[in-house]
């Protein structure tokens, strides 16, 4: 079933341990490729929007067959949120002029997203508790991604000497 393949981000969500983290890790190669090969933030934003739209559809299909509000194996929400978190990486050149995205900011985007997704500060926690259905599954991770993107941007400015 295509919805299950997409909802689990090509089976990353079937990991027996930390499926959300594995789903976020599964999102990283695509983000790295987009940023490394000239796609920049625009193409990564398009990818995040596509993951959100496709993820909402796939999650709704999976939820129709599940009695769980937010099944742990559904990780396409982590993919969309992770890509949002990494958007600012495109704004800062890699240290030393190395090709591709800056590895420190890239790793920082992963860590920041996972922290916001796990700790769920408001309004991430509100979205997680209050919004039902597929949109509810997606929304908390999109907000966590936006929070993480803010952190990545500030760290990028500091690293670039822009305070």
Q: Measure the end-to-end span.
A: 49 Å
Low-confidence stretches: none
Number of helices: 7
Strand content: under 5%
Tertiary shape: globular
CA radius of gyration is 15 Å
The amount of helix comes to 55-70%
DSSP strand count: 0
Helix and strand succession?
HHHHHHH
Strand count, sense and barrel status of the largest sheet are: none
The whole-number mean of residue pLDDT values reads: 94
Structural category: mainly alpha
Total domains: 1
Specify the oligomeric state: single chain
Characterization of the model:
By secondary structure, the chain is an all-alpha fold. The chain has one domain. Helices cover 67% and strands 0% of the residues. It has 7 helices and no strands. Helix 3 (40-63) runs antiparallel to helix 4 (76-85), helix 4 crosses helix 5 (103-119) and helix 4 runs parallel beside helix 7 (133-159). The model has no long low-confidence stretch (mean pLDDT 94).
Concise synopsis of the structure shown:
This protein is mostly helical and 163 residues long. The chain contains 7 helices and no strands.
């Amino acid at each position: 079933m295509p919805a299950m393949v997409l909802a689990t981000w090509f089976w990353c969500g079937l990991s027996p341990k930390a499926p959300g983290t594995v789903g976020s890790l599964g999102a990283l190669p695509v983000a790295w490729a987009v940023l490394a090969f000239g796609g920049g933030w625009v193409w990564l934003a398009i990818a995040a929007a596509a993951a959100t739209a496709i993820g909402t559809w796939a999650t709704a299909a999976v939820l129709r067959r599940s009695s769980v509000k937010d099944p742990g194996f559904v990780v396409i929400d982590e993919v969309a949120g992770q890509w949002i978190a990494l958007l600012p990486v495109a704004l800062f050149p890699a240290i030393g002029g190395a090709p591709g995205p800056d590895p420190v900011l890239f790793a920082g985007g992963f860590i920041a997203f996972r922290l916001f997704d796990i700790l769920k500060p408001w309004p991430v926690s509100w979205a997680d508790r209050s919004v039902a259905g597929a949109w509810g599954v997606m929304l908390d991770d999109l907000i966590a991604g936006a929070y993480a993107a803010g952190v990545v941007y500030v760290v990028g400015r500091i690293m670039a000497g822009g305070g």
